[in-house]
Design a protein that fits this description.
Helix 15 (327-334) links the parallel strand 12 (317-320) and strand 13 (344-351). This protein folds into two domains: 2-212, P-loop containing nucleotide triphosphate hydrolases (Rossmann fold); 223-408, P-loop containing nucleotide triphosphate hydrolases (Rossmann fold), CATH 3.40.50. The strands form two sheets. The protein has a seven-stranded parallel β-sheet with strand order 3-4-2-5-6-1-7, with helices on both faces. It contains 16 helices and 14 strands. The protein starts with a helix and ends in a 37-residue tail after the last strand. The chain has 410 residues and is an alpha/beta fold. Bound molecules: adenosine monophosphate. The site of adenosine monophosphate (AMP) has 14 residues, from helix 4.
Length: 410
């Protein structure tokens, strides 16, 4: 079914107008991704759409195209459509995807998030904005200053709803939703459906059409997983050696301090590295991201929170420089590579006293990969993708690890 949709359907077949189809063609988007093929007709028909999908699946256009198709002229400070996102980075990403589409139909889009000039955002709202993209905190601030009214909003998208809930934004989301008229259309996208997201679904959606893209599992299976037992003093050199073997390596540390420290050490070792974490000003974060995207930095060192929702193409290696705290984090971090069916390498550095903790994560993630002692000057480091750890050293007996299950859909 999905393959059929992928090969045969065009955006026009789904009901996308010629103006918008032309913008997509110009951007090189010829065929809809599965989530787009599955949800655009429902969105255009006015249905509430609940999508299980994460960044990289193509969900932005899945909700963005029908929203843009339905835009109507706005009065100053009274946007007509609202996309709520958890982070500034995701706000900018969504903006980048939707701006040319909104422009093509002669409407206006503005993006509001903390850390950027309030005055510019207010001026834009004053001029009239049809589509508002916002993080919850800044939007509430603007509403309290009477610079944003939601009483003309007819369609809302809650993007990465699980992240918004995890980041403690539920009270703000409720407040925002209570300012939107009841008869609006709602899109909700989330990688998981836990109780807080379920509450949003129950409260703000009416008979939603549900779609699921098993993106995360598909990609995890296309990854190669390596676990290296390392000495902590050798870790920066190991990270540098791995980075030299690839164009783009995304490295995760547990803390902001560790991210800065590793970035500095990598630079000292001659690796062009950039950092992204919550303590850095917005401008610095954007700079790091664009240097990594452009290939000027070959290593991007991130904390879990800062990397949430980011879409970066062409990540060759995800390096768990510090092991993740749990299997969910392992999967989320690792999912930054092997996008869209590409091959990806995921490497975890394990210090001697972290072995048991990491085995626990492997067991719960359904992995059974030997943890192999290695130093940074080992020649296997230069091509870990091709090197297979000896199977007989696998930590668990065959059959004792439950098979990685497809996670249940919504
Ligand atoms: P998203 O999950 O919305 O962040 O989408 C991931 C990336 O895939 C976006 O940055 C787009 O550049 C790209 N993309 C989305 N839809 C398509 C498509 N139909 N064809 C090619 N690329 C696409």
């Amino acid at each position: 079914m999905i393959n059929e949709l992928l090969t045969d359907t065009t955006f026009s077949d789904l009901g996308v107008s010629p103006e918008l189809a032309a913008v997509l063609a110009k951007a090189g988007f010829e065929k809809p991704f599965p989530i787009q093929a599955m949800t655009i007709p429902d969105g255009l028909a006015g249905a509430d759409v609940l999508g299980k999908a994460k960044t990289g699946s193509g969900k932005t256009l899945a909700f963005g195209l029908p929203i843009v198709e339905g835009l109507e002229q706005a009065e100053p400070f009274h946007p007509r459509a609202l996309v709520l996102v958890p982070t500034r980075e995701l706000a900018m990403q969504v903006t980048r995807d939707l701006e040319p589409l909104v422009g093509a139909v002669g409407f206006r889009l503005v993006t509001v998030y903390g850390g950027a000039s309030m005055k510019d955002q207010i001026d834009a709202l004053d001029a009239g904005v049809e589509l508002l993209i916002a993080t919850p905190g800044r939007l509430i601030d603007l509403m309290e200053r009477r610079k944003a009214y939601l009483d003309d909003v007819t369609v809302v998208c809650l993007d990465e709803a699980d992240q918004m809930a995890d980041m403690g934004f539920m009270p703000q989301v409720r407040k925002i939703m209570s300012a939107v008229p009841d008869d609006h259309q709602t899109y909700l996208y989330s990688a998981t459906l836990d109780s807080q997201v379920q509450e949003l679904v129950d409260r703000y959606m009416t008979d939603p059409v549900t779609h699921s893209v098993e993106y995360e599992n598909e990609t995890v299976d296309t990854m190669e997983h390596r676990f290296l037992k390392v000495h902590y003093l050798d870790k920066p050199a190991m990270a540098a050696a791995l980075s030299r073997s690839a164009d783009r390596t995304l490295m995760f540390t547990r803390t902001k301090w560790a991210a800065d420290d590793l970035t500095k050490r990598l630079r000292d070792l001659g690796v062009p590295a950039a950092a992204i974490h919550g303590d850095l000003p917005q401008q610095k974060r954007e700079q790091s991201l664009s240097r990594f995207r452009d290939g000027k930095a070959t290593a991007l060192v991130a904390t879990n929170v800062a990397a949430r929702g980011l879409h970066i193409d062409g990540v060759d290696i995800v390096l768990h420089y510090d092991p993740p705290d749990d299997p969910k984090t392992y999967l989320h971090r690792s999912g930054r590579t092997a996008r869209a069916g590409e091959d990806g390498l995921v490497v975890t550095l394990v210090e001697w006293d972290q072995v048991n903790e990491v085995l626990g994560i492997q067991r719960r993630a359904g992995l059974n990969v030997p943890i192999i002692k290695m130093f940074s000057n080992d020649e296997r480091v230069s091509d870990l993708f091709s090197w297979q750890p000896p199977e007989e050293l696998a930590p668990f007996k065959p059959g004792s690890v439950r098979k990685r299950r497809r996670r249940r859909g919504f």
